[in-house]
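Good morning,

Both structures are done.
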Amino acid sequence: MYEYIKEEIINGNIKGKENLPSLRNLSKYLHLSKNTIEAAYQQLYAEGYIESIPKVGYKVVDIHSDLLNVSQSYNDTTPKDEISNNIKNYKYDLAPRYVDKACFNIGIWKKIINLIINEEFESLLSYGDPQGELELRQEIAKYIYENRGVHCQPDQIIVGAGTQYCLNLICQMLRENFNTIGMEEPGSNYIRYIFERNQFDVEPIDVLKSGLDVNQLEDSKCKIAFVTPSHQFPKGVIMSARNRVQLLNWAKNKSGIIIEDDYDSEMRFVGKPIPSLKSLDNDDKVIYLGSFSKIFIPTLRISFMVLPYWLLNLYLEKYKMSGQTTSKLIQIALARFMKKGYLQSHIRKIRRHYQNKNTAITNAIHTYMKDNINLISSNAGMRVILEIKTDLTEEQIISLAQNSGINLVSLSQYYIEKSNYAQTGKIRVMLSYKGIPLEDIEPAIKKLSNAWFNHATNI
């Protein structure tokens, strides 16, 4: 309202000395509250665009808008263009951003979508349940019980468009009573940004070989801990049973809350998947986050959270009016995809595929890089970490890779306290094989090895 009236005054469409409509009339005409109209008028008054005259109302000030020289020219360089120009194309992209198209059978998905549209179209003519379609929540409850050991009811599950939505909602519910979150160090910049945007202080808690340093958490003032226990990002460690019990005891004894992100637990290549932390939670202290983005199509934007009943009650009281952010059609389609067993079949397929990739990248690294690196890997996930034995700087290592047409990321960028990373004195990089075709892995590693270890002519 304020921006619109201001632009109309500047452009001369509302002339100087014209009376603005009364608060009451404009409120009635636009179906807005009088408070909204008055707030806009007050801002215009404060900036000198209008004046308040007793018994007359608000009148536009003659500001000689022709002197402002407001440019109406069109700039054909949009922000999107600028962003696109900053994204380089690499021959081999080992950054953790993509999903391998070879993993997905689009035909089955299209068939399910078409069946719903053709046979159940009327069911799509409403917005649906704010918590997510019951049919989908029932399938999710069954899925996480069978695969992750999580006992919950469908009414505890909230479906949303991505982890960001779920975390934002969690932050809104917890922010009234908490202001600090303990987060794994190193950890996801994406997750940290969400917490900081919601005005939480983020305190780094070191990740050891056994997972989160619970002793350090106990010594902090944090009452909330964010963890990725089944496969820590980015280091890839699995939280030990001892640490899990200690963490749950911390939550019980300190009235703490644990947010568990179980984002890629399905990708374990040896033995059965590690049970979730939530499966051990007997005191309702764990908020469980899950997502289909890593094992399915990321752009479908389907994630979910399992709320403890004490937090569910707060959601139902204050936040259930938040609209559902995920397409009803996509929710129903995913529910059918799960109910017919296609999801489990899909997971078995991609697990084999990524296991082949894991073997390929591990063999290539041993073949071409030999003793020049320490391979920090695990039998899970879709990435490996290299610790490089070199006299080069981290910047030179990244630059040599990029100049050779290879995109990757260093581990240092995931640290909150950069000094924590610097103290190690080691250069570590992450190689994600999630999006690169299987046949490109060996040539990519060979080229990377040449760039780093025959670098005298490359710098």
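Second structure follows.
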Amino acid sequence: MTEELLSLPVPSVPHGDRGVAWLRAHVVRFSNGAEHARRRALTTKLIENVQVTSLDELAAVLGLPGSLDDIATIAPCYQPHEPVTAEADAAVERLARNHDEDTAARIGLLVQAWAATRAFAEHLRTGNPGPPVPVTRRAAQGGVVEVGLDAHPFGHGPHACPGRDVATRIAKNLAFRALHHQDEPFVLPNAWDHASAVALHASGFRAVGTTSLGVAAAHGIEDGAGLAGDETVRLARMLANLPFPVTADLESGFGGAPDEVAELVAGLGVAGVNLEDGRPHGLADPHRQAELIRAVKERAPGVFLNARIDTHWLGIATEETEDRARRYVDAGADGIFVAGLTEPRDVERLATLAPLNVLAQARTPKQLGDLGVKRISTGSLLFRAALRHTVATAEAVRDGRTPPDAFGYAEVQDLVSRGTRSCAG
């Protein structure tokens, strides 16, 4: 029945020459028939092959840079059943230099992206399974009916949003960033393949990272040597399509120049990346590392860049840590990750500079949160535990003992089946 209702036309909107009324009357969202087909083609062309990581970037691509304050004013009045404010009418007029379909398409795209991505991001952050748009309206005999979308993927039906992929990526970026600004730290488990990622998400983790050791070792490659680039990128692109935010450990960028690493990050589709200043033979020059961070943030501003500082990890003089942290934050890093950091005073001091990430340790998440920590990573722990469990299970079978508990065959099949569905499906 819902499918039949979704095939009905959207309610018509009255013609308007100015303000929100003009916008409603000229966008694809509230059109039917030939007008819908023409306007949809125009809208689709505007975002064809667009790769953006933030709403600001999308606004610039649409020729509306710096418009998000106006868009935020228009969005609550956009739907035909919502009252229109004078402020919203004025905001439309500021953006609509030409009152034509192309201009309406640009404004409408950004309004819908602004509203949907924020709702979707909140659902991803909290684990709420609901769609970003809970209901849609259709013209039926006897009036207008509301159609619930709980059972349908984002962007379903004849009026499916042509910007679904762009909106989904931006929403995951927003959700992942928001996880770093909660009252208590979030625990980020690190996966090494598709199955481990979807299993972790199914157990309740809102986001998943990758582990460089796990990815490298699973392919017979030494970690930290910059040799597992192809394997890391392949996995990141696979996981980027999953229905939750993913952050990829890119080691130090696998030897690429700053602009090359920046293009890589922009094209991966992940919500976050780790870039470390450790190198096979010591630490990178902090000025060069800052240049790398700056290049990535300029090219992919919506991707959360976690700057890993390896002073503690490599046993190098720790007085360098804060200086490096400040340089990286000034260059645009969204967070800092000091592997091996445990001293409470150091934790508290560094936590004032940016969202601080530490490795899982003896302290509880609550205790680390009280010190100012915002993110706790498991690093390679889960991969190493899986190896130990694998060996222990094989030994138990060989020695005639009862093997440890494991996932059932059907459970894994179900995890993979659900996990391969993207946010749009």
